[in-house]
Specification:
alpha/beta, Rossmann fold, 45% helix, globular
Length: 193
């Protein structure tokens, strides 16, 4: 690790956004989530999730299986509330930040605390995280083939008459992570100028 990064502060943080309830997701969506989590770690980044079930949990599982660091931002104010009120897991997370801001506040912090957002099969919370990241100009990677979310996001951009070169689509978790990391590096280079 270079001297300027001896503490790992500049490691890229990639948020994984996706459905907590995955019944509507496509076949193999959870396997794709695991692969996405593994790729995040294998490509040198840290996974950040909403400390929830479903697609993000499986991505965190993949990250931990690959020996990576996993950070979760909870909507709850305490671990007790996280587990007993929100019914959220503690598994596969090295550190959980209890925001106390509910889901909508957590979503804002989650996307802003990350360098980019990777989107899998999702529901309305995932779309909320997409729109926050989109409005903030964050790099966004949309995983195709794991459910209808990629089509919904394309439709939102088309019908909203807004597109961005910072939103990329790919069905291959490895390629998607690599492409998003490249966008993040370009953004960091621009900011350093």
């Amino acid at each position: 690790m270079p001297e300027e990064d001896k503490h790992g502060h500049s490691r890229i943080k990639l948020c994984v956004s996706g459905a907590a309830e995955t019944d509507h997701c496509g076949e193999g969506a959870l396997d794709q989530a695991v692969a996405l989590g593994r790729e995040i770690v294998e490509q040198g980044a840290v996974i950040v999730t909403g400390a929830t079930t479903g697609f993000p949990l499986w991505a965190a599982k993949g990250a931990k299986e690959a020996g990576g660091t996993s950070l979760g931002l909870s909507p709850a104010s305490t671990e007790y509330e996280h587990v007993n009120f929100y019914k959220l897991p503690l598994d596969y997370l090295d550190l959980i930040i209890y925001t106390g801001f509910g889901y909508s506040g957590r979503n804002l912090l989650l996307t802003r605390a990350s360098d980019a957002v990777l989107i899998g099969c999702g529901r309305v919370g995932t779309i909320n995280e997409f729109t926050i990241a989109f409005e903030d100009g964050k790099p966004i990677g949309v995983l195709e083939g794991c459910g209808p979310t990629a089509l919904v996001i394309r439709e939102i951009m088309d019908k909203g008459h807004r597109h961005s070169d910072n939103v990329i689509f790919d069905a291959d978790p490895k390629k998607l992570v690599a492409r998003v990391i490249e966008l993040v590096k370009k953004e960091k280079e621009k900011a350093a100028r």
